[in-house]
Amino acid sequence: MMQHLDTALITAFVERWQPDTNTFHMPFGEMSILLHDVHHILRIPVEGELMRDDPHPDVLKLDMHDLVRVPVDGPVGGKWKSKWFLNGGIHAEGLLVRGREMKIRDLEVQTYLFVLLGSTLFVDKSRDRLRPAINVFLKDQRRVAGYAWGAAALAYLYRQLGMATQVGSKSICGCLTLLQAWIYEYFPLFRPSQILQAPDAPRASSWVCHRFAGGDDARQRLVRYRQMLDEMSGEDVSWTPYGRDAGTELLRSLYTGVIRFADVAEGYDPARCRRQFGYRQTIPRTMMVPKDVYRPASYSTYIVFWEGSMDQLWGNLPSHFLHIAIDSDLCEYPSEADEDYMDWYRTRSHPRIINPDSGGVSLQRPVLVDEVSYVIIVQFLMYC
């Protein structure tokens, strides 16, 4: 794992992930990483063309051949194994070297983008191999800027969170920088120190993370994090870290439907997380249900299949987004929920991890600075 990642903190949140709803189940209700979070934390586009191309593995194999201009060992449909290819992936370092060797500008740019995206947004558990599907969206460089890369990265992270909840899973991949920065944004109790940056800078780069120890220290932190999360209430959450206009400033975050990255398709339902838009939480009307789901105990197989028509929702935002009655639905206080919401939620969730009889911890609650104050402080310090 990368040194800036707190594996214990990430594990504590993975334990609360529910793949059927793509939300974290907290003691006070559901929360999730939403598209406006991706926008503010990473500053990559969440609007654009849905990345739904899903070529056959043999086509991916031929694409790799065209990219590096070398034969792909093994029969078509068989395992890949060569200097550059191994177990269906491509070596990141070897790809960069090959890109420079070919001295073809377009291919050098393509290989650089391939490695960059594969080592940041679509990270493989091997840490040194790249998913061939990334290259599908880089072949035509005129279209690269038009894709919804943020939505794709979020779909991929949703899938990796779901796989990490399976029995036998020992690690997680995906854009863990996004996950950890999201935790810092919403949970002040876990925040490290923060440096002031321009308001339009990626907020992930504002957190000052030291190197986190592993081994016994990580296990002790995990126990502590579990206890802290169990003791939290909605008052311990910074529900709108970017301001109360997240939905109106970025309408795409209110989209309801499926988000995709190649063969990965995941449901996205902001109705379960209304408080993250500054609105009172209500009981969700329905749960999005895929056509077929296969998640056996063996984490090596994980299938979520949606009707093909679900992809069309992305292009019809006005008809498929969370409708909110602005005046009546605004929170009177940040963690507000309907009176019957928590009763409904408790019958459908297991919001605590540790046996309550084992004793809790005393939370040292910090003073929160809202987003408006943060922006004013930044602007004052930068332009005074």
TrEMBL record:
Q: Where is the Aminotransferase-like plant mobile domain?
A: 5-346
- Known InterPro entries for this protein? AminoTfrase-like_pln_mobile, MAIN-like
Q: Name one GO biological process term.
A: meristem maintenance
Coiled-coil intervals, chain numbering: none
The name of this protein is: Aminotransferase-like plant mobile domain-containing protein
Which organism encodes this protein? Linum tenue
